[in-house]
Amino acid sequence: MAIEVERNISSGGSASSYGGGRGGSAPRFGSRGASGPFNKRDKFDNLDKGSTLRKPRWDLDKLTPFDKNFYKEHPNVVNRSPAEIAEYCSAKEITQRGANFKPVFKFEEANLPEDVMGEIRKAGFTEPTPIQAQGWPIALSGNDMIGIARTGSGKTLSYILPAIVHINHQPFLESGDGPVCLVLAPTRELAQQVQQVAAQFGSSSRIKSTCVYGGAPRGPQLRDLGRGVEICIATPGRLIDFLESKKTNLRRCTYCVLDEADRMLDMGFEPQIRKIMDQIRPDRQVLMWSATWPKEVRSLASDYLRNPIQINIGNQDLSANHNILQIIDVCREEEKDKKLMKLLEEIMGEKENKTLIFTETKKKSDDLVRRLRRDGWPAMCIHGDKAQQERDWVLNEFRTGNAPILVATDVASRGLDVNDIMFVINYDYPHSSEDYVHRIGRTARSNKHGTAYTFFTAANAKQVPDLLKVLRESKQNVNPQLEAMSGYGGGYGRGRSRYRQRDDRFDSSRNRDSPRGRGGYDDRRSDSRSDFGSRDRFGSRDGNQGGHSSQNVASNGARGPSRFQSSSGQNGQMENNSPRPPVSQTNGMQNGGFHATQRPPQGQQQQQQQPPQSAPGGMRGPPPATFQRAPPKQPAAPVAGQNAPAPVGGLAGAPAQVNMANFDPAQATKVAMAQLQGQLDPASFAQYQGYYQQYYTQYYNQLQSQMKV
Description:
Elements: H1 40-48, H2 75-78, H3 82-92, E1 94-97, H4 114-123, H5 130-140, E2 145-148, H6 155-168, E3 181-184, H7 188-202, E4 209-212, H8 218-227, E5 231-234, H9 236-244, E6 255-258, H10 261-266, H11 270-278, E7 285-290, H12 295-304, E8 309-313, E9 324-330, H13 336-347, E10 355-358, H14 362-374, E11 379-382, H15 388-400, E12 405-408, E13 423-426, H16 433-440, E14 450-456, H17 464-473, H18 480-488, H19 520-526, H20 535-538, H21 605-608, H22 665-674, H23 682-708
Helix pairs in contact: 5-6, 6-7, 9-11, 22-23
GO molecular function: ATP binding; hydrolase activity; nucleic acid binding; RNA helicase activity
InterPro entries: DEAD/DEAH_box_helicase_dom, Helicase_ATP-bd, Helicase_C-like, P-loop_NTPase, RNA-helicase_DEAD-box_CS, RNA_helicase_DEAD_Q_motif
Protein name: RNA helicase
């Protein structure tokens, strides 16, 4: 027997010449997959993953041998002089350790099969990237390899094309066989993108692939695995579940890829990775890819790679893409919203304006999207708590340009492959400079250029030294205020002042009526603009954004969890090609007064912000819970001459020339409230009266501004 382990006969785990039968029992808990950024709970949950998997005792003499060296140097490569190679490697910043493989300068020199070359020509590629030029000879020769390269370097094709060649030289799959090639990825977004590449370039070779990740139904994924796939792209959590429940096996796996290994370790997946690697025969070929080379990644490589050849593209120190213009704006926390709005005004005036905005937390992402959509910006949100189908739909809207603004947490900072992102905005600076480099690496993909803006506050002062290294290495202009923070320990904050205590009035820890719980002054300031659903105007003590009851969500999307569940983006011929629009509190199509996705023209922006007429009193969406004690009999909204003296035209669309003497906010309020007499209880009547008074006062101020223009 190839493996000397106990087998459960009833489980169907029969012996095989490839070894590694199915073992273990079904997991007690469902998979968490890679559904979100790493946190402490994930770390301890990951320790229990795979606890029932037994490590096989491999006998190499009894394992079926397989071929993994298919590389033959092209005559052009053989005849190339050392001087030419040295010049090329110097220009492309390629360094190699452990061997001396010559890079290929053209696709034809890699001796790839003709069907693969046809797919390359169809994709319009002209020449290999540095990581491909140096990586293909190593991977095709059957060596274990470590690739250290920044994001956007083309590493996916660096291991997918050799995988296709490797699979074509192996025996066909039989019933019950697992995949020949396994790719482990940290996030479901990255796994889906790798699967798309595998499906595109493997279709002509009739190589089937599937994507296995958490947060999606297990059924379609199990169906694909049961039918047999040569390539499986998986997140560690879901794959561990399938291995424990004996739904698949890794007996046939001879080609393994660890993509973004540093990210997987950051997310706490090291125990799962080790348990998965123990299920694969020890003479497999392993390719490890990482953007950084910390000691944790080095330790993992030393345990599971045999005599690896390491290639580095660019400086081994932490460095950003030199094609990215990095702009650091040193500011205070409460200034971020104003600066962001001004920045978006400039960006959206550009022809290519696809923008990715990063925030620190999921809640902040949701809150920021609400504020952006309320102001008419076509923004959507993605983070780990979103249902998979909603995430697919949002990414599709972003890729197609229907929603050119995407707000995200770090779940999207790695592996998000959208070629035409022109701008990255760090609304919150990340916890480490490594994450900063990966975030801004979403722009300037495939040798293009991009711009990264970062709001940097005194709270980030400890990150200044590392950030300065990144900026200077990439030859960026350094903000003098940033250098000053480095010298004085972050002195751009408020400092000690006798007026400091005045800000404590807005600290939610001292204000029981704060709608946000923790967050204090900055959060209150950011949400205190003219939104007619805010708590400070209606006195709602609800904890939701804007003071609305959790059951009143007509303006912010559907109530409760999304009714759309995720679908699996399964093998090369995926059945669900067009994601369905979700019902979400942040990504709903009607949230914020615009439909679909494009920001309204400049002349129509104010009209878009007018509360819909269908809501009582012209409010934005349903009234707060305090208004529902005695619902009115649907009084007409205060628009064009209905509930107020002519020429009232609402908050927008008023005629250019108005006789200011004919309009009085107090009189307009009195006329509007006369129609509500007897329909509301006294408390609600007073609430509405305050609302109308504010409504017409704002309109009166706008008339004044129009007269000045």
